[in-house]
């Protein structure tokens, strides 16, 4: 009996390059392509959905989604750099942001700046106490107190001091743009000829001041008006010489052009009671 032996085929192994790495590479390329497709598809979606995707991807890559953001201020100092008392570092307070000024504050600041310039002009001429200044809900009032200082008795002719005062304040008022009301006042005692009553006397004196400001100091005539109130608006009670002098006055009122709501707040800033 004869035995037939099987023919053995020699194993020569793989003859070409090893391409098994391509499987992993293609898997990675596929994943990246899917991710960019998803990002492109969500490019027009609202922010909430995008944040949801971002949180999902962060979780998938091993990060935990955070529910809040740490906005603490300061410098993180390692514990080993601190001594037992925690000293060696200073607490520095950040300056607070300056609040924006209100419309009333801006209006008051503008009138107060005008007051300072008028007072400076009077001080330069040695007339620092020749007028009073008040900021109220009407604007800035320049008070020429005691009319007899600026006019002769029972007269509407300006005195030398009156002209000096008006020369000083007129230059400042001419460069300003506010409307101006020149208002004459008298005490309760009746005048005599040529004035029939205090209405005529106070009106004549107010008109005289207005005319000097316009003609001699070039204050725009379209900005100025004059009015006489007679003895109807006293600022002092009684018959003392001081009370009579206070009521015998001419006021130059620089009128505020702010809204009524803004002007109503001006007395609070200057400490003046608008109710009078």
Question: What are the salient characteristics of this protein?
Answer:
rod-shaped; alpha+beta; 276 residues
What is the first-to-last residue Cα distance? 146 Å
**Would you report the number of β strands?**
5
Catalogue the unreliable spans: none
The spatial strand order of the largest sheet comes to: 1-2-5-3-4
Question: Biggest β-sheet, characterized?
Answer: 5 strands, mixed
Whole-number mean pLDDT: 82
Q: What is the string of SSEs from the N terminus onward?
A: HHHEEHHEHEHEHH
* Number of DSSP helical runs: 9
Taken from the alpha-carbon principal axes, the silhouette is rod-shaped
Category from helices, strands and their pairing: alpha+beta
Task: Write down the Rg.
Answer: 44 Å
Beta-strand percentage range: 5-15%
The residue fraction in helices comes out at 25-40%
What does this structure look like?
The chain has about 280 residues and is an alpha+beta fold. The chain is about 40% helix and about 10% strand. It contains 9 helices and 5 strands. A 5-stranded mixed beta sheet has the order 1-2-5-3-4. β3, α6 (about 200-215) and β4 (about 225-230) form a beta-alpha-beta unit. α3 (about 105-125) packs across α5. It starts with 20 loop residues before the first helix and ends in a 6-residue tail after the last helix. The model has no long low-confidence stretch (mean pLDDT about 80).
Brief summary:
This protein is α+β, with helices and mostly antiparallel strands. The chain has helices at 21-41, 47-60, 103-124, 147-150, 160-174, 198-215, 241-247, 260-263, 266-270; strands at 132-135, 139-145, 180-184, 224-228, 249-255.
């Amino acid at each position: 009996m004869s035995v037939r032996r099987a023919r053995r085929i020699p194993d020569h192994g793989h003859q070409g390059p090893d391409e098994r790495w391509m499987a992993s590479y293609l898997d990675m390329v596929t994943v990246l392509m899917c991710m960019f497709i998803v990002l492109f598809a969500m490019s027009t979606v609202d922010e909430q959905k995008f944040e949801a995707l971002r949180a999902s991807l962060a979780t998938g890559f091993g990060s935990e989604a955070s529910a809040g953001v740490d906005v603490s201020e300061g410098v993180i100092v390692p514990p080993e750099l601190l001594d037992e008392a925690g000293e060696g570092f200073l607490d520095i307070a950040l300056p607070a942001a300056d609040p924006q000024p209100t419309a009333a504050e801006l209006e008051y600041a503008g009138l107060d700046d005008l007051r300072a310039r008028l007072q400076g002009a009077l001080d330069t001429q040695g007339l620092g106490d020749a007028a009073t200044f008040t900021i109220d809900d009407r604007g800035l009032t320049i008070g020429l107190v005691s009319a007899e200082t600026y006019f002769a008795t029972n007269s509407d002719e300006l005195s030398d001091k009156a002209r000096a005062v008006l020369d000083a304040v007129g230059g400042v008022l001419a460069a300003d743009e506010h409307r101006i009301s020149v208002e004459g006042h008298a005490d309760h005692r009746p005048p005599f000829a040529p004035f029939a009553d205090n209405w005529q006397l106070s009106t004549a004196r107010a008109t005289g001041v207005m005319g000097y400001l316009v003609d001699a100091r070039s204050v725009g005539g379209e900005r100025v008006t004059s009015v006489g109130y007679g003895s109807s608006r006293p600022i002092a009670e009684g018959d003392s010489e001081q009370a009579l002098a206070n009521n015998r006055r001419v006021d130059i009122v620089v009128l505020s052009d702010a809204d009524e709501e803004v002007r109503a707040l001006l007395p609070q800033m200057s400490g003046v009671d608008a109710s009078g």
